[in-house]
């Protein structure tokens, strides 16, 4: 009788575990859904970026422009952003935000100038209940600093009014996520976009 109870309890626990794992599995996005989501970022944007300055314990605000263009490659958008810093210099960055149907995930990649090969920097998933694309920094290969690696999080948060924000979180030494950058994207008027 004791063996029967143990087997029954084991079966129930196994069934509950399977159900819990299935509930955590993210649904696959169709090609059309991923394309629609990426198209929400297409266009020319006015960017207002707020950056936390830990030494001064203050927020620095800068302005700039960004262009998100459809890419010929896969389901992807080329992201190019240029921010004017207070000292007159500019900070530019670009890469490709794409959806991999093979891996069922979004990826942010940069092309190496020398080889033209795409290097995966961030991977993530779409959370429709929050209108958010949550991306995690990929652990660099071949590095011995695995224990010290504290991955950043990027969040693309899409608003119903056609704007979106990109939030960059960095973990502190205790693993608490701190907001380091927040960029708000609003559409540029057509005359300014060209």
Question: If you had to describe this structure to a student in words, what would you say it looks like?
Answer:
With 194 residues, the chain is an alpha+beta fold. The chain has a single domain, classed as Calycin beta-barrel core domain (Lipocalin, Beta Barrel). Helices cover 19% and strands 48% of the residues. The protein has helices at residues 2-24, 31-39, 190-193, and strands spanning 43-53, 58-70, 75-84, 90-100, 105-111, 118-127, 132-137, 153-158, 164-171, 177-187. The chain has a 10-stranded antiparallel barrel. A hairpin with a 5-residue loop joins strand 9 (164-171) and strand 10. The longest helix is centred in the N-terminal third of the chain and has 23 residues, at 2-24. The model is unreliable at 8-23 (pLDDT under 50). Residues 1-23 form the signal peptide. Keywords: Signal. This is DUF1579 domain-containing protein.
CATH level-4 homologous superfamily: Calycin beta-barrel core domain
Mean pLDDT: 81
Query: Approximately what portion of the residues adopt beta-strand conformation?
Result: over 45%
Cα distance, first to last residue?
79 Å
State the order of secondary-structure elements, H for helix, E for strand.
HHEEEEEEEEEEH
Corresponding CATH architecture: Beta Barrel
- Name the shape in a single word: globular
* Number of H- or I-type helical stretches: 3
